[in-house]
TrEMBL record:
One of its GO terms (cellular component) is cytosol. CDD domains: GRX_PICOT_like, TRX_PICOT. Keywords: Cytoplasm, Iron, Iron-sulfur, Metal-binding, Repeat. The lineage of its organism: Eukaryota, Metazoa, Chordata, Craniata, Vertebrata. PROSITE patterns: GLUTAREDOXIN_2 (PS51354), THIOREDOXIN_2 (PS51352). The gene is GLRX3. SUPFAM superfamilies: Thioredoxin-like (SSF52833). Its main location: cytoplasm. This is Glutaredoxin 3. It is found in: Cytoplasm, Cytosol. Residues 110-129 are annotated as: Disordered. The keyword Iron applies.
Length: 303
């Protein structure tokens, strides 16, 4: 009987207005609230609604909420919902985490982590903010040129980030990136840290250069090439790689695990002769793969 009552209580609440949403956050401030911003036309949202229903059964102490993103635009705009499905996590009426996309395993992990953790610390505690500023400083200095974007250079998740990557690649600029969707604390904190409210953001030597509009202006004025570090040319990279050791084997895989029959045969030959050598896995570098071909390993040594 108790199990049946718990299952009956394990429902996903649907919210249809901004006022109803704010009231729900206030009434359930003592518990974790997970909000699914969804759209009826997106099949992945329907799948995640099923996941939410199952999680509601497993975590009856957590409040699970559905909010149709386009039907309540004021809430979607307030929390910068640009795609569906998106999940927000609230404690004490404050947003503490975010998940963009239909990632059921990650949603499950976040629910479990936040449900088992204590209450969200009050905003008056300044120590976490100091720690965050130190972390942001380290991130902005993580590479000579750092791009904070939505998604990755290989899979940008917004048009502005995609355009930024295309410009940097067109100018052969060497940069590292950070996916702001992967860390909600960084996503929100960097806006205050840099006094720049939108993404993407480009940093050089830890200093903010600007967003997409600024980068376009620098490109038009031909200043971009003088500000950002250039990636080494392929010929220079190959020269460094081929001179890394007296004998260099460019192969598919590495010494411990060859990933093609030809590479395995050459490893066996080299190991049987006792020759000292280093290897480079061409599967980890698309440029090297194209330069050396895709069929056989290449052995290079001193003349």
């Amino acid at each position: 009987m108790a199990a049946g009552a718990a299952e009956a209580a394990a429902v996903v609440v649907e919210v249809g207005s901004a006022r109803q949403f704010e009231e729900l956050l206030r009434l359930r401030a003592k518990s974790l609230v997970v909000v699914h911003f969804w759209a009826p036309w997106a099949p992945q949202c329907a799948q995640m609604n099923d996941v939410m229903a199952e999680l509601a059964k497993e975590h009856p102490q957590v409040s699970f909420v559905k909010l149709e993103a386009e039907a309540v635009p004021e809430v979607s705009e307030k929390y910068e919902i640009s795609s569906v499905p998106t999940f927000l996590f609230f404690k004490n009426s404050q947003k503490v985490d975010r998940l963009d996309g239909a990632h059921a395993p990650e949603l499950t992990k976040k629910v479990q982590r936040h449900a088992s953790s204590g209450s969200f610390p009050p905003s008056g505690n300044e120590h976490p903010k100091e720690d965050l500023n130190l972390r942001l400083k380290k991130l902005t200095h993580a590479a000579p040129c750092m791009l904070f974007m939505k998604g990755t250079p290989q899979e940008p998740r917004c048009g502005f980030s995609k355009q930024m990557v295309e410009i940097l690649n067109k100018h052969n600029i060497q940069f590292s990136s950070f996916d702001i969707f992967s860390d909600e604390e960084v996503r929100q904190g960097l806006k205050t840290y840099s006094s720049w409210p939108t993404y993407p953001q480009l940093y050089v030597s830890g200093e903010l250069v600007g967003g997409l509009d600024i980068i376009k202006e620098l490109e038009a004025s031909e200043e971009l090439d003088t500000i950002c570090p250039k990636a080494p040319k392929l010929e220079e990279r190959l020269k460094v790689l081929t001179n890394k050791a007296s004998v260099m084997l460019f192969m598919k895989g590495n010494k411990q695990e060859a990933k093609c029959g030809f590479s395995k045969q050459i490893l066996e030959i080299l190991n049987s002769t006792g020759v000292e050598y280093e290897t480079f896995d061409i599967l980890e570098d698309e440029e090297e793969l194209k330069e050396n071909g895709e069929l056989m390993p290449i052995l290079k040594g001193e003349n």
